[in-house]
Design goal:
The protein is mostly helical. It has two domains: 4-76, no CATH class; 80-153. The chain is 57% helix and 8% strand. It has helices at 4-12, 19-25, 56-60, 78-138, 146-153, and strands spanning 61-66, 71-76. It has a two-stranded antiparallel sheet with strand order 1-2. Helix 4 runs antiparallel to helix 5 (146-153). The radius of gyration is 40 Å and the shape is rod-shaped. The model is unreliable at 35-47 (pLDDT under 50).
């Protein structure tokens, strides 16, 4: 049966520590050559156990404490940054796809408008020409010929 130490030992590889390990992580490692950091800026820079690019805070981000200023700082980890970058690129790709669909939609709407406009123009021109033929056949001396009338007043298609 696994003990709690076995469980935490396995989780330590993932960057999850026991409360005792966490409190020890806040203290610098003892090294006789470098018993104390040279200045306060070195606290946490190379003296922290597990301080590598693969530790939990570098990967996922989190809050850290600066003993020099006594302030807590938020750190953006590599994984959220990579996910945000991927999300931004995915949004860019989808935006370009939507723009392409909008252009196709605009072209189709323009084509349908032109078809409808030309059909309406032919219908109206036919009605006007028939009316002018009737007027011209009744009194050619007063009314202009249907060809002259349509050249002057007919609706031009697109």
């Amino acid at each position: 049966m696994a003990t709690i130490n076995d469980l935490y030992g396995g989780l330590a590889r993932l960057g999850i520590m026991t409360p005792q390990q966490r409190s020890n992580a806040l203290l610098p490692e003892w090294n006789p050559a470098n018993a104390m950091p040279q200045d306060a800026n070195q606290w946490g820079s190379g003296f922290m156990p597990g301080n590598s690019i693969w530790d939990n805070q570098n990967l996922w981000g989190g809050t850290s404490f600066d003993p020099k200023t006594g302030a807590f700082t938020q750190k953006m980890g590599a994984v959220p940054t990579a996910l945000n970058t991927f999300g931004g690129l995915a949004n860019l790709y989808m935006g370009m796809k939507m723009f392409g669909l909008a252009k196709k939609d605009f072209r189709e709407n323009r084509r349908q408008f032109n078809l409808n406009y030309n059909a309406q123009a032919r219908t109206l021109n036919s009605t006007m020409e028939n009316r002018q033929k009737a007027l011209y056949s009744a009194s050619p001396q007063i009314h202009s010929s249907p060809a002259e009338f349509m050249a002057k007043y007919g609706i031009k298609g697109i």
